[in-house]
Amino acid sequence: MASVYQINRGVNQPVMFKGLKAQYIWYLGGGLVILLVFFAVLYICGVNMFICLGIIFTSGGILFKKVYGMSRKYGEHGLMKKLGKRQVPELIKNNSREVFIK
């Protein structure tokens, strides 16, 4: 008796949602939660509703543009590589041969 198995062709592929890859989904979600809290604070402080909405929609548009831009520019692991590269020293100075002699 022959068995039929479905092959998952998405194995080892990065997690994607609407064009966002990997950690950028979390960045966008966190940014939207921060905007929601900021809207609530502005509204409670008595700022006009239309001014609140204008500020939040403008900030949200900038947030979407930046996060999608980073996702497109750096990809799944590129941002981590860029941040890691900043921590590598350009040169290592050694004024003594004592390290190599011992």
From TrEMBL:
InterPro entries, per the entry: DUF4133
Segments traversing the membrane: 24-41, 47-64
Pfam families on file: DUF4133
Alphabetical UniProt keywords: Membrane, Transmembrane, Transmembrane helix
Name this polypeptide is given: Conjugal transfer protein TraF
Organism of this sequence: Niabella ginsenosidivorans
Phylogenetic placement of the source organism: Bacteria, Pseudomonadati, Bacteroidota, Chitinophagia, Chitinophagales
